Amino acid sequence: MASLIEFVLFAPRNKGAALVGSFSDGKEMLMSKDENGYFRTEVELEDGIYQYKFRVQTKSPNFAPDQWVDVIDPYATDINEKEKQGVVRIKDGQRIVDTYVWQHDDTPLSDIHELVIYELHVADFTNDDVGSDKKGKYKGVIEKLDYFCELGINAIELMPVNEYPGDYSWGYKVRHFFATESSYGLTEDLKNLIDKCHGRGIRVFMDGIYNHTDEECPLMLIDRNYWYYEHQHYPEDPDNYWGPEFNYNHYDEKLDIKPAWKYIGDVVRFWIEEYHIDGIRFDAVRQLANFEFLDWLAKQAKNSAEPKQFYNIAEHIPDTNTVVKPDGPLDACWHESFHYFMIPHICGESFELNNLKQVLDPQQQGYATATNVINYLATHDRDRLLRELGDRGIFNTTAFEIAKLAAVLLMTAKGIPMLWMGEEFGEYQEKSESVTQPQKITWSLLANKQNQDLWEYYKKLIILRRQTPAIQSDNIKFFHENADAKVLGYVRWHEWGSQIVVVANFSNQHLTKYHIPEFPTIHSWRDWFTNSEVEIGNSGMITNLPSHAAKIFISH
């Protein structure tokens, strides 16, 4: 039985529009325009799958005035990229994305302060370690969920999964905001991945690219200057221009709307309601530069996700407390200064206590709470630590010693820790200079003893972090500072739980019988690595501190 299905296109300044579909034998079906700027038409369709596109008299300045151009529906939830058409599914007389049935919506997930995040790129995360039909796809990530659970990961952050041009990219130039990248798999596959993550207690965050688009985004073809800035938003910063930028300042007085606000608001609500995501990492917030819009969008996201927790994360380079709560629009900011200051310290290039302390305690930078910052040693935009070390001529045993020191600092610093895929076992590939060339991570490294040992070390630290409220808290105090020996000690605590102490030796010298006079004396302590009791005398603690190493002591 056929049902009337409405096709709608919002194009308030365009003169004419038509619908062309597999149901019309390629013939145009003219659409009528209402007073609110919407072109509409209805088609009788049986249940099934159809292809369609719009033909529009464009208002974009790179075409002749009112030239007819073919465009894909800006709201299309599935794309046939080769045919350059949208795909619509009809079931029981209604439009649907797919028939996926969610299984794990009621599974409890970790609170935000308990998170350990793992950033990954779907296309490069899996290779021959999974079946050929799964590598580089959502199904391949599903195959690795047991790996995440064993490591202790309870949140993954997916690099962009919106439909982009071609079959390989990092995805930061989105063409179709409502569709998922077809080379990664079906919409059902992405939902299955998210659902199975939830079933294992893993939150799923997605990368939201709301500053700019691909040059052939449908909105660009329909009416560029209605949606985008006519020129570069920041012409003085050409190195950080990645494509046409949404104009969040444009207000349509006639219709009483801000077009870019409405469109991206619809995008965010769709991904929360349709894909059940748990948070968004907002790309290029400094370039987007509209905190009023971000505040509105973040609130829209939280409202759509209720009663679930939703985490709004800014990528703002350099990082700044102005973008996060209580006064800013978002919940957290990628803590770029952690990477920026930590790398030279652990590589032995500098030892500036003030710089080191402010990234271990971001309250010194004006961040109010631990959940305001996402700490990391590497991301897709920053080289992994072993690459950083190799570039400085540091290899083999010393490199892995430093990697373990860095892991302790990452997991015990104030803030939410994040790993970049492969970092946990010592992946050392240089970050990609081209976002169009595949760069699979090297799972075979886990066959090497040093790499496996590093992985086990990360695993133990992640377990410690997740089980210890003291490390998840807002509390940190530096009680021992020795700039000459390059040693720093700090204590983390929780009001109703145990304390932990970290003493880190950043030097290349083994410090024998090192004296820590100010060591906290209010508890009995054990060495977490050796699980042995330690004595605290009236004059403090005396201990050996290996080079490039940190000791962790836990009260009991």
Strand % is: 15-25%
State the low-pLDDT regions, or none: none
Largest sheet strand order: 11-12-15-16-17-18-19-20
Total helices: the number is: 14
**Number of DSSP strand runs:** 28
Content-based structural category: alpha/beta
Assembly type: single chain
- Percent in helix: 25-40%
Radius of gyration: 26 Å
Largest sheet: 8 strands, parallel, barrel
Please tell me what the overall shape is: elongated
From the N-terminal CA to the C-terminal CA, the straight-line distance is 70 Å
* Mean pLDDT over the full residue set: 96
Search tags:
alpha/beta, seven-stranded antiparallel beta sheet, eight-stranded parallel β-barrel, elongated, cation binding
Kindly describe this structure:
The structure is a single chain. By secondary structure, the chain is α/β, with parallel strands linked by helices. The protein is 26% helix and 25% strand. The chain contains 14 helices and 28 strands. An eight-stranded parallel beta barrel has the order 11-12-15-16-17-18-19-20. Strands 2, 3, 6, 7, 8, 9 and 10 form a seven-stranded antiparallel beta sheet that branches. Strand 9 and strand 10 (94-96) form a beta hairpin. Helix 6 (259-275) runs parallel beside helix 8 (291-305), helix 9 (336-346) packs across helix 10 (353-360) and helix 12 (396-412) runs parallel beside helix 13 (449-467). The longest helix has 19 residues, at 449-467. The model has no long low-confidence stretch (mean pLDDT 96).
